[in-house]
TrEMBL record:
Family classification: Belongs to the acetyltransferase Eis family.
Protein name: GNAT family N-acetyltransferase
NCBIfam families: PRK01346.1-4
Spans through the membrane: none
Lineage: Bacteria, Bacillati, Actinomycetota, Actinomycetes, Kitasatosporales
Top-rank taxon, per record: Bacteria
Keywords: Acyltransferase, Transferase
Organism expressing this protein natively: Streptomyces gibsoniae
Subunit structure: Homohexamer; trimer of dimers.
Active site (record annotation): Y123, F409
Gene3D superfamilies in the cross-refs: 3.40.630.30, SCP2 sterol-binding domain
Domain N-acetyltransferase intervals: 3-162
Residues noted as binding acetyl-CoA in the record, renumbered to the chain: V82, S83, V84, R90, R91, G92, V93, L94, T95, S118, E119
Amino acid sequence: MTTDVRVLRQNEWGDWYGNLFRAFAGAEESAEERALSKELTDFGRSLGAWDEKVCVGTAGAYRFHLTVPGGASVPTAGITMVSVAATHRRRGVLTSMMRRQLDDIRDWGESLAVLTASEPAIYGRFGYGVGTLQLRAEIDTSRVQLSVPPGTDDVRLRYAAPADALDACEAVYARLVPGRPGMLARQPGWERVALLDPPGERDGASALQCVVAERDGEITGYARFRTRLGWGVTGHNGTVTLSELAALDPATDAALWRFLFGIDLTTTLTVRGRPVDEAWQHLVSDIRRCGPQLRDALYVRLVDVGAALQARTYQAPVDVVFEVTDAFCPWNEGRWRLMGDAKGASCARTTDAADLALSVRELGSAYLGGVSLTALAAAGRVRELRQGALAEASLAFGSAVAPWLPHGF
Ligand SMILES: CC(=O)SCCNC(=O)CCNC(=O)[C@H](O)C(C)(C)COP(=O)(O)OP(=O)(O)OC[C@H]1O[C@@H](n2cnc3c(N)ncnc32)[C@H](O)[C@@H]1OP(=O)(O)O
């Protein structure tokens, strides 16, 4: 079988999207959702795999800017919309698309590619490593109390229609982006994704609700959520499901969480995709009754090792030589000397002896500071060739704020 992998044309979008939609066995989507998906498709950066006239594969690469440790906003390919028709699976169609895509990203001069995986087993072979984790929890708000910091009572909350509050919420989001590695600067149109609220997908829950927080006359945070009422033999047992929460200061953050904990007739607060170091975990009386769980989130691929490593800063001085293997993108292979600190970094090829040996996948995992090189070495995935180099590099790569991807794509 030969499949032809090529850039998507405007008139092919229906077949292309149909292949993707079927691969994810999706329920019928709303017209609004479909229109937004099309609007966000970047045709010049999307690939289709064709078996004669039939679309059998899809892949896209959004044009994103990713915050890296130190706060720089780095042009990054956001890999998305990956599918292969079940009739053509396991014959190398995905591999052909990944080949073409990574070559293209390199030509576009983007040093990083990131994605969220439908299944963790798929992307390691193409050099992607898990770079961020996310937290989910099912909080028993009938039993767990929240103690809040001083100033929380100064925060005023009010309901707002999600669309009416959009600009104010976006302004809060934009202020948070530089402060946390893994966050994505908002690209045009993406603000509307969070407001999609097709009634057919609510599964018995309310329409999307929004509460904004104000302090000293300024909007300092917001929460978007749904409620779902329920009644058992002993009374109400409704659920609050958080979609999004952002706060510019600890008091606002605590005020929003206190509000979510306290909505009448609800006894469970469900949160997904939250930062692993989020403050609420330190405000609750009983973390066990919050049922916290970790899950893999953003996978990171260094497309250009030298450019990527020098795009971020390092929280402690570092001078190490990496021996990098990269079977899928051999242009990265070889020795790289990284010198850096909290102000900046340089990374260039060297013939000096190597201090640490690892594959590009481990570099991707460590890149945003969420997975330590020491932990990867303990798993046998990083080898220390100069004593002390592992501790030095591991400390330098860390991040004081846990990296976090705020939304899927
Ligand atoms: C960023 C995103 O969009 S994530 C979304 C990914 N898409 C989906 O999950 C939709 C449903 N699944 C699919 O469409 C397809 O099964 C895909 C895209 C995951 C795989 O496509 P295929 O064309 O079958 O992959 P391909 O034949 O190139 O496989 C390459 C290798 O990956 C392995 N592989 C492929 N899919 C999987 C998987 N789901 N789990 C484990 N291994 C896998 C293959 O076995 C093969 O291994 P080998 O090189 O050792 O022989």
